[in-house]
Each structure stands twice: as C-alpha cells, then as structure tokens.
Design goal:
Distance between the termini: 29 Å
Protein name: Regulator
Strand order of the largest sheet: 2-3-4-1-5
Number of strands: 8
Region (Disordered): 206-228
Largest sheet: 5 strands, parallel
CATH superfamily of the domain at 2-138: P-loop containing nucleotide triphosphate hydrolases
InterPro entries: P-loop_NTPase
CATH topology of the domain at 2-138: Rossmann fold
Organism: Streptomyces smyrnaeus
Shape: globular
CATH class of the domain at 2-138: Alpha Beta
Length: 672
C-alpha cells in the first residue's frame, strides 16, 4: 500500500501486476477506499471499471463510460465521450482485470491520458500493459512464514477451527509454505477446515501438488515448469474441486456461463438438469459458498476469475458449453419478453432494476445469439432497447440492433420493433434524419401488417423527431392522427401511452397550456392507477413546465421534485438532467437563490454526463435564463459561481440531495 500510494501520487499510469489469486483487485480496492477517505482528497472523482466480464474489445470504452456514469446522447464514439467528460477533471480511474485485453487497454488509456491532463489510471493485470510511462508494481504473494500464516489463521478461526496448539501452528506454517503465500489458495484451503482437520488438509495439499493443469490435459513432460505460486494456486483450486460432491462440481462448471454476478433464481433457471434438480442446486450453491468457491454478495453471487477459468475447462470436458450458453440465452430472452410485456404497469420499476442487473447477461446472450439465432438476437435487442435507452446504454442499443438487423431480413414483429428501437436510439443521439427515416420504415411495416400498436410507435418516433427539432405543431398532428385513427375505447398500450405523452408535450410547446395541463393530469392519474413511473414522471415534467409558464412556481417545484424522485428510481439519466433545470428555475423564482445555484450546477453536471447538445426542450430556454438571472441578482456573480461549481464538481447523489429536499439547508459555505 505504501508503494502504491506513493506511485499514485507521482505517476499517471500505475499497473499492479501479479499472478491469479494474489490479491491485485483487493489491493486496488483498498487503495480506492484510502484515497476516498483521505482528508487531502487528491481526486474529485474516483471510479472503478470491471473488465473481466468482457469477451472482446468492442464494448471496452462503453463499459468504462458506464462505470463513470456517462449516458452519452450524441453520435460520438464512447472514447470521444469519455475524453470529453473527463477533460480537465481530477479523476482516478481503476481498470480491473486487463490481462485479456492488453493491447486494447493500452490504446484506450493512451488516448485518455493524452486528452485528460488530470487523469490518473490504476490497472490490475497478470502482465504489464507495455504503455508509455507505465509504472509497474509487482504484487507478490504473502510472505509464507509471516503474513500468509496470519491470513490463514484468521480464516481458520472464522470457520470455527482456530489454530492454537504448537503442532497445528507448525502444520499451518508448512501448508502456507506449500501454497507459496498465494492469498486465494490460502482462502480455499482454510474453507476446507469446515469439513476436514488441519492435518488432513495439509496432507491433501502435499499430495495434490502434481494435479494436471486442466481436466484431461496434463502438462507435457518437456514443458517448462511453472513458478511455485502457479502450482500452488492450481493445486488449491483443483483440490477444492476434488473435495466437492459430484453435483457441486457440476454446478461449479455450469455457473461459469454467467459473465458477471448472478442470483439464485437465474442460476436455477439456467443450470438445473440431470442430477441438479432445483432443491439440489440450492443446496450445492450454499455448499460452494461455504467452500469459498462462490462469492456471496448480498443476494447475488459471483465466481472469481481463476475459479471461473477452472470451471470452464470442466464444462468443456462435459461437452456442455454450447448447451449451457443456449439455455442462458433462452432464459435471458424470456425475461426480456416479460419485461417488455409488463412495462406499462406496477412492475415497471422492478424491471428497470432487473435489466440493469442483467446488463452483462444480456450482452453475453446477444453475442451468442448473433452467431446461433440472429432472429432471436434481434428480438432480445428490441425487447431491452427502451430500458437501455432510458438507463443510458444508447451506444450498446445502437451497436447490437445494427448487428442484428444486418443479420436478418424479411418482415416480422421483431424486425419492426428493432427498426423502431434503432430509430429512437439514433434520434436521441441527435440524428434527426434517422428519426424520420426509421419512423417511415416503422409506419410501412405497420400498415403492411395491419398493426395498430406499431402505428402508434411510428407516430411517436415521427412526432418526437419534430418536437426535438422545434416543430411542435407537426408533432401534435402526428400524435392526434394516430390517437384518432385508433379510437377512444381501448385499454392503454405502450404505443398509445407514448402518443398521449407526445400530445401533451406538443400542446405545451405550442402554447396551448390549459389543454396540455388537462391532458397531463388525466394521463398522470392513469399512470398512478397502473403503478407506472416512466410516463408519469414525464407528465410531472410537463406539469412543472406549464406551472412555470403560468407563474405558479411553488406548484412547479413540487412537480419537478416528483419527477426527479421517479427518474432516480428508474435511473433515467436524461430525465434527471431535464428535471434539475426545472427545479433550479423553480427555486430561483421562489426566492431561493442558493438552492437554485446548486441545482443549476447539479444540472450542468448531468448535462455533461448526458453529452446532449440541446439543454431541454426549446420552451425551457427563456425560463432557464430568467431563473439564472434572478439567482445571480440575489447572490452576485461570485456567490452564484461558487455554489454552481460546488454542485458541478460534487458527488452526483450528494448534489441531488442538496436540491431535491426542501427542508434541510444546503451547504452554503464557499469552497476553498
């Protein structure tokens, strides 16, 4: 830690290099906690990006952007968005597990360090990146006679087998020496003390040193001998596998299908079969946690890289790799269908959270289906698109939809949904022409199929394109035509709800405020009845905007806070940026200039994260200018700027808390 802290204080790129299981990630995580708790606060922003779920480089920059919380709504490639947002901010970025992406990480980091003068990058890898001005810090195993023994004794005591007698202390020391002080090997060995004595454990470790590298693939006699720590870890992992019951070994292998963390329900859905019935699976999962093979993190689980690699070798030996990948993809596809079906209802918020948990699983399923079943890949991409767009994954939405559409042809519901979804993603990235083009393609397919729901979606995309580019009457005509043609006696659907919201927005933009308020209130009540949040939050946006235009500033603030609470619950980052501007203006016109300055600063931070060239709807611009002028007049330019920049550079959640709660006083002291 002393070496790492010193290096981070002087160098801009530091790589922790060491073998599997030696503790690189844990050391990096501890360094982050130390930096965050430091009174000097050298870094304004600290971020961690897990790279181990990635299979290739195609989404490397997008993954790092997600880790930074970016939700870029522009046509820029993710690397450009990253450079643009970090810019001159003081940022510490950790990239964990770079070894399978070394050349790509080297390029990404080089571009970032060149463009961002105050960025420091800490990486973990099994080999150096070979980057210019890289400082490499080797992470050795623990000293076998001292630190390793201390760790082993701590872990032994935690499983109810304290090492106290002189004989046991000698056995522990010999075992630590045989395992060469590799922390993961020590953890696995200590976990076995739940079922075996220390003497049995030490004896098994001694006899297991010649385990083969992989099932069915022993090391050739003439191959160079591995370092002792590699043999030690291989021994510990192999021995842990050997001590598992057959069904536990089977589950270990099957769990490697998950690219990131998973829950027990999904594991049961994907990994049951043969001797692994649902009850046995739950029993085996608990046993693997007890043996430190599976890491439990709340109600979710994950495999460490080394454990996953070993399990994948066994999955290949079992001949189940393709079968499990297909089952995993089928399960994810079925969940996406349920999410899409239940969007307009009380489970909407739950599905936003669930699909965010499944983010890596969806990408893994799409990767598999693009090769094996492109039509299913297109359906999956279309099902998750609206969720992903709202949660800021526009680049991924665009990326996978284009790949899936290129691999399929003909006419189908999935293809029509994919075309509409791609048009929406492209439009929200600022591509007006794509919005019009894909709206027309959606309309044609809807007419050919006689699909009223698809006609709603075509009208929504056409109208949203017009609205975002300053043509509210065209947007109103598109929405009203679709709603009139469909009739009035029908249950709300996804498409009709989008069109009703579009009509409210267009009425407001056209200055027909009484009609807009009436329709917004009716739509909001219906959303409350259904338990739906996304549409409801945008009706609150419109009601707040209408209230500002009608000079009802207290009502505007209440609606803006309602909107922001809903947007935070479903992680709609673009919506948060929009809502903060409304709330800031309401605070300013209510005579709360300090909160207004903080809210404008928090809003500016979120607009930078979103990267959108347009700050809200066109009718918001004069209101924003009026609010900013009012706040500056009360505070003075220096006072306003101090609070604005305090929120601009603060933690996102902290800044939101300052401005959304009307009761506690926000921090008004000037930053040093």
């Amino acid at each position: 830690m002393a070496q790492l802290t010193g290096a981070l204080g002087k160098q801009r790129l530091v790589t922790l290099v060491g073998g599997a299981g030696v503790g690189k990630s844990r050391l990096a995580l501890h360094a982050l906690h130390t930096q965050a708790a430091s009174p000097r606060q050298e870094y304004t922003n600290i971020y961690w990006a897990d790279l181990w779920p990635l299979r290739g480089d195609d989404l490397l920059a997008a993954t790092v952007a997600d880790a930074l919380g970016l939700s870029d709504h522009t046509p820029r490639i993710p690397l450009d968005a990253l450079c643009g947002w970090v810019a001159d901010r003081s940022v510490l970025l950790v990239l964990d597990s770079c070894e399978h992406l070394v050349p790509y990480c080297r390029h990404l980091i080089g571009e970032l360090l060149t463009a961002c003068p105050n960025l420091t990058v800490l990486t973990t890898s099994r080999e150096p990146l070979g980057a210019v001005r890289e400082t490499v810090l080797p992470v050795p195993p623990l000293a076998p006679a001292t630190e390793a023994v201390t760790l082993f004794r701590q872990r032994a005591e935690s499983v109810g087998r304290p090492v106290r007698e002189a004989r046991d202390r000698r056995l522990a020391a010999r075992l630590c020496a045989r395992l060469d002080g590799v922390p993961l090997a020590l953890e696995l060995a200590a976990a076995q003390l739940r079922h075996h004595t220390l003497a049995e454990t030490a004896d098994r470790i001694r006899s297991g040193l010649d385990l083969p590298d992989a099932p069915g693939h022993p090391r050739p006699c003439d191959s160079p001998r591995r370092p002792a720590r590699h043999s030690a870890l291989r021994t510990a992992v192999g021995w842990s596998h050997e001590l598992c019951r057959p069904t536990e070994r089977l589950l270990w292998a099957r769990l490697t299908v998950f690219p990131a963390s998973f829950d027990a329900d999904l594991a049961e859905q994907v990994c049951t079969g043969g001797p692994l019935n649902p009850r046995e699976l739950r029993t085996c999962l608990a046993a693997l946690v007890h043996k430190s093979v599976v890491m439990a993190e709340g109600d979710r689980f994950r495999l460490l890289d080394t454990i996953r690699e070993y399990g994948r070798m066994w999955l290949r030996e079992l001949g189940e790799t393709e079968h499990l990948a297909a089952r995993h993809a089928a399960a994810v596809l079925e969940l996406s269908r349920m999410a899409r079906t239940e969007w307009l209802g009380a489970r909407q918020q739950w599905w936003y959270g669930r699909l965010e948990q499944l983010y890596h699983d969806v990408r893994e399923a799409l990767r598999f289906l693009l090769d094996s079943d492109p039509a299913a890949a297109l359906e999956l991409a279309g099902n998750v698109a609206f969720f992903w767009v709202c949660c800021g994954h526009l680049y991924e939405t665009h990326h996978y939809l284009e790949l899936a559409l290129d691999c399929t042809d003909g006419s189908s519901e999935a293809r029509a949904q994919g075309i509409w979804s791609l048009g929406l993603a492209r439009l929200l990235q600022g591509d007006q022409e794509a919005g019009r083009t894909f709206a027309e393609l959606t309309r044609r397919s809807a007419i050919a199929a006689g699909d009223k729901e698809r006609l709603f979606q075509a009208a929504h995309l056409e109208g949203l394109t017009a609205l975002l580019f300053g043509r509210p009457l065209a947007a109103l005509a598109a929405a009203e035509t679709a709603l009139r043609d469909a009739g009035t006696c029908q249950e709300p659907t996804f498409g009709s709800t989008l069109c009703r919201l579009l009509r409210v927005c267009a009425l407001t933009a056209a200055g027909r405020l009484k009609e807009a308020r009436r329709d917004a209130e009716v739509l909001r009540q219906e959303c409350v009845r259904l338990g739906e949040l996304w549409t409801r939050s945008y009706t609150d946006y419109q009601l707040a905007l209408i209230a500002l235009l009608e000079n009802r500033v207290c009502a505007a603030g209440a609606h803006a806070r309602d909107m922001l609470r809903a947007k935070q619950r479903i992680r709609d980052r673009m919506g948060i940026a929009l809502g903060l501007e409304l709330l800031a203006t309401a605070w300013a016109l209510q005579g709360e200039p300090e909160r207004a300055a903080l809210a404008y600063g928090a809003g500016a931070q979120h607009w930078q994260m979103v990267g959108h060239p347009q700050r809200g709807t066109p009718e918001m611009a004069p209101l924003r200018e009026e609010g900013q002028a009012a706040a500056r007049a009360r505070l003075g330019d220096a006072g306003y700027e101090a609070l604005f920049h305090k929120a601009l550079h603060a933690d996102r959640d902290q800044a939101l808390a300052w401005v959304t709660d009307p009761d506690p006083d926000p921090p008004l002291e000037e930053p040093p």
